Amino acid sequence: MPVWLQTALLLTLSNLFMTFAWYGHLKFHNKPLWIAIFASWGIAFFEYLIMVPANRIGFSELNVSQLKIMQEVITLAVFVPFSVWFLQQPLKLDYLWAGLCLLGAVYFIFRS
Predict the structure, then answer these.
(1) Do residues 24 and 46 make contact, with C-beta atoms less than 8 angstroms apart?
(2) Among 10, 14, 22, 49, which is least packed by CB within 10 angstroms?
(3) How would you class 71 by CB atoms within 10 Å of its CB: exposed for 0-12, middle for 13-18, buried for 19 or more?
(4) What is the pLDDT at residue 42?
(5) C-alpha separations of 9 from 37, 48, 49, 97 in Å
């Protein structure tokens, strides 16, 4: 499997954990803050277990700017369905415009 694909798959998985750690507690806003904090830390631990190897694998062939832009694209691709499905937020055209801006970033970072 190519390094860029291994990296993208691992970053996608880690981003699922990250998104739940950062935003999942918002669905349960009536719970005490300390529960949200400890639950988020617990989830983030698993995110780091996947993200650190993903970045190390990716860095063998990609530069740090390429890794960062890849992460940002994956973040948007994971966050939009999460916010619509899990948090019941409306799907907005702004996500499309943000995605197009990120595609521009991908072009400029990966063109060399």
Answers:
(1) no
(2) 49
(3) buried
(4) 95
(5) 27, 14, 14, 24
Instruction: Tokens for 47, please give them.
Output: 């995110």
Token digits of residue 24: 């999942």
Contact 60, 37 (CB under 8 A): no
Are 70 and 58 within 8 A, CB to CB?
Answer: yes
Express each pLDDT in 3-55 by its tens digit.
999 999 999 999 999 999 999 999 988 999 999 999 999 999 999 999 999 99
- Half-sphere exposure (Cβ direction) of 91: Cα atoms closer than 13 Å: 7
Instruction: Read off the tokens for 21.
Output: 């750690």
Segment 94-111 mean pLDDT: 93
pLDDT at 112 over 90: no
